[in-house]
């Protein structure tokens, strides 16, 4: 089956990278070798290409990387940082190498791999509510109830819903009263 | 027999020419013209239509009451021939509130506004423009024998909600009815309308009951 951006994202964004990360300062990263391993497992044709970096008058630079899976590609970027996330002036080869690895992993995340680390630092994939689903289990019950009015009244009476309940969720549940 | 319907949602144009001049609103009604909504205004209308349900839900969560006549069960109320005109042309006055309270709120209407594309709830100054619509809604229901003494005017946004309680205001009602009468008489071809009617000099009975100013 031919790869598409959608199919690649659906595959890679569901991967749990627990135990495959490292901590750098306040941030959690997927180790570059695991990222490469996972990518090669699913897409052995993967290629990493390095684009001309942006260099600035003060000697700092931004690395640019392109990840290709056949005809599909994503381009990412990353400044050459020190350990405190300050851009390094006139970076040395070892500074650049460290950041190339981070830049490659970040660029891979644009295909979905370990993207959740950039949301919240958690290695488990995060389910985002993009299709208008109702998150609150109590409100879900209301949405499924035959008589929604009664279901709301019961939920209010039992304090199962209150001012802290999402009105957006409840609104969706009530849409077809 | 010819019949016209003055909707409370169009009251700002009918009474004050707020978005469409009074004369053009009159001509449109006379000629059965429905003006296309410009894309800028349509964006706000779509946002309001989409999020009205969130405003209703917020009211429920705050007041711990399930209202009636909400969303798909909204009810259209019509006072037929509200001026008791005799002749071949009649004018009705109608409204469709966003909800009606029950229990301790049974004399309360609910009107939801989702302004500023959901960024923040409106301040009182912005909400004042809705008082005419609210007042006529109260008038219509009372005329039909449904006792309504107040409206909860809700300004919902993603970043907070404000609710004002608007008490029935007979003085304001009389003021609006005189403007509607003038407009209706022009509709039946027996008079002209003023470009801008005189301002209401009385006081509005409105107070914030939820959220901070």
Structure explained in plain terms:
The complex is a heterodimer of chains A (177) and B (213). With 177 residues, chain A is of the alpha+beta class. Chain A is built from seven helices and five strands. Chain A has helices at residues 5-12, 32-42, 93-109, 116-120, 137-144, 148-157, 167-174; strands at 21-24, 27-30, 47-55, 61-69, 72-79. Chain A has a three-stranded antiparallel sheet with strand order 3-4-5. A two-stranded antiparallel sheet of chain A has the order 1-2. In chain A, α5 (137-144) runs antiparallel to α6. The longest helix of chain A is centred in the middle third of the chain and has 17 residues, at 93-109. Chain A is elongated, with a radius of gyration of 22 Å. The two termini of chain A are 43 Å apart. The relative contact order of chain A is 0.14. By secondary structure, chain B is an alpha/beta fold. Chain B has helices spanning 11-16, 22-30, 39-63, 124-127, 131-143, 170-187; strands at residues 2-7, 77-79, 89-95, 99-100, 108-113, 150-157, 160-167, 206-210. In chain B, the strands form two sheets. In chain B, strands 4-5-6-7-8 form a five-stranded mixed sheet. In chain B, strands 1-3-2 form a three-stranded mixed sheet, covered by helices on one side. In chain B, a hairpin with a 2-residue loop joins β6 (150-157) and β7. The N and C termini of chain B lie far apart (50 Å). In chain B, 38% of the residues are buried. The model of chain B has no long low-confidence stretch (mean pLDDT 93). The interface between A and B is medium-sized, with 19 and 19 residues.
């Amino acid at each position: 089956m031919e790869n598409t951006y959608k199919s690649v994202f659906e595959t890679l964004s569901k991967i749990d990278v627990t135990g495959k990360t490292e901590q750098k300062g306040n941030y959690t990263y997927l180790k570059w070798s695991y990222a490469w391993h996972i990518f090669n497992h699913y897409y052995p044709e993967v290629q990493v290409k390095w684009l001309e970096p942006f260099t600035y008058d003060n000697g700092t630079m931004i690395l640019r990387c392109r990840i290709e899976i056949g005809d599909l590609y994503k381009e990412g970027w990353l400044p050459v940082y020190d350990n405190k996330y300050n851009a390094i002036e006139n970076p040395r080869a070892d500074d650049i190498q460290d950041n190339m690895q981070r830049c490659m992993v970040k660029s891979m995340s644009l295909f979905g791999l370990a993207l959740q680390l950039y949301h919240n630092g958690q290695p488990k994939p995060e389910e985002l509510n993009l299709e208008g689903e109702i998150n609150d289990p109590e409100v879900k019950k209301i949405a499924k109830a035959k008589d929604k009015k009664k279901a709301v009244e019961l939920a209010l009476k039992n304090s199962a819903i209150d001012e802290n309940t999402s009105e957006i969720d409840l609104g969706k549940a009530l849409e077809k009263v | 027999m010819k019949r016209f319907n003055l909707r409370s949602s169009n009251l700002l144009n009918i009474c004050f020419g707020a978005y469409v001049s009074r004369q053009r609103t009159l001509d449109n009604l006379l000629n059965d013209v429905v003006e296309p909504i410009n894309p800028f205004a349509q964006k706000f209308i779509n946002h309001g239509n989409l999020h009205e349900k969130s405003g209703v839900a917020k009211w429920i969560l705050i007041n711990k009451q399930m209202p009636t006549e909400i969303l798909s069960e909204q009810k259209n109320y019509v006072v037929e021939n509200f001026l008791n005109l005799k002749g071949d042309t009649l004018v009705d006055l109608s409204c469709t509130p966003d909800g009606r309270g029950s229990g301790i709120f049974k004399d309360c209407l609910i009107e939801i506004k989702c302004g500023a594309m959901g960024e923040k709830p409106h301040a009182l100054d912005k909400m004042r423009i809705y008082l005419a619509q609210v007042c006529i809604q109260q008038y219509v229901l009372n005329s039909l024998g449904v006792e309504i003494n107040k409206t909860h005017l809700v300004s919902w946004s993603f970043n907070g909600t404000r609710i004002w309680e608007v008490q029935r205001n007979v003085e304001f009602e009389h003021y609006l009815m005189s403007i509607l009468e003038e407009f209706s008489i022009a509709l039946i071809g027996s008079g002209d309308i003023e470009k801008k009617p005189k301002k209401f000099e009385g006081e509005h009975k409105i107070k914030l009951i939820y959220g901070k100013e």
